[in-house]
Amino acid sequence: QVQLAESGGGLVQAGSSLRLSCAASGDTFSNYVVAWFRQAPGMEREFVARNMWSGGRTYYADSVKGRFTISRDNAGNTVYLQMDSLKPEDTAVYYCAARRIYRADYDYWGQGTLVTVSS
Q: In 1-119, which ranges are E strands?
């Protein structure tokens, strides 16, 4: 059973940085796509960034491009989201998600980690 667990959220001031982690277990993830999504209060969940677990091209939402970076730990099953120059509008619960490369939908989700950016 694939399990994802996010960590690293917290309360920070605008302009600060945070790094979120997503620890995965339960499978070999070389053929998975991993992504970060977020959901702000009263809003729909939205895509933030994604990458193949084995590396390759990354994709970002326009709202975070140039400020956020998705990366992975070569030594283990951990994916990161480095968030720089945070803005109050980045406040949301951030979720890690994964799917096999041939799947259209993300089948596996973490429980989420809250990021709050104060102005």
A: 3-7, 10-13, 18-25, 32-39, 46-52, 59-60, 68-73, 78-83, 92-100, 108-109, 113-118
